[in-house]
Write a structure and sequence with these properties.
This is GatB/YqeY domain-containing protein. This protein is an all-alpha fold. The chain has 2 domains: 3-86, Uncharacterised protein YqeY/AIM41, N-terminal domain (Hypothetical Protein Yqey, Chain: A, domain1); 95-146, Arc Repressor Mutant, subunit A (Orthogonal Bundle), CATH 1.10.10. The protein is 73% helix and 0% strand. It has 7 helices and no strands. The protein has helices at 3-16, 20-40, 46-66, 72-86, 95-108, 118-128, 135-146. The radius of gyration is 18 Å and the shape is globular.
Length: 147
């Protein structure tokens, strides 16, 4: 079953359960993916569709960071939406797993532990582990290693 089909099935289930938050999030994801398919004039693979799910997740996390502490209603709603979207992504890697992977890449590529190699490492990690981590987390872990 394709990712878009899974979203359609989940949306129907959420509608029957009257889960408005889930329906809204799934509708947002479906429209984002459908728009991309129309623009590219082809059906997206599941991996390509997950890129749009990650974009939505990133936007929600940015919204959460920008929300003032006194707006608990917005914070709670955003956290619920983040939880729903994370359910559609593969299990995200922990910082410990990323640290081990980054150190292996540094050894394999025979790189020095300097900031000038940061771009090479990021590109390698995001290329190999697309969907399992995000650039922000990779960047933080690399900064810890290169300190």
């Amino acid at each position: 079953m394709s990712f878009l089909s899974e979203l359609r099935k989940d949306k129907m289930k959420a509608m029957k359960e009257k889960d408005r938050d889930r329906v809204n999030v799934i509708t947002l994801l479906m429209s984002s993916i459908s728009l991309a398919e129309k623009e590219n004039k082809k059906e997206l693979t599941d991996e390509e569709a997950l890129v749009f799910v990650q974009k939505e997740l990133k936007q929600l996390k940015d919204t959460l960071e920008a929300t003032p502490d006194n707006r608990q209603d917005i914070i709670d709603e955003t956290k619920r939406r983040i939880d729903i979207i994370e359910g559609y992504l593969p299990k995200q890697m922990t910082e410990e797993e990323l640290t081990e992977i980054i150190l292996n890449i540094i050894d394999e590529k025979d790189l020095e532990k300097t900031k000038k190699n940061k771009g090479i490492i990021i590109k390698e990690v995001l290329g190999k582990y697309k969907g399992k981590t995000d650039g922000k987390t990779v960047n933080l872990v690399i900064d810890k290693i290169l300190e």
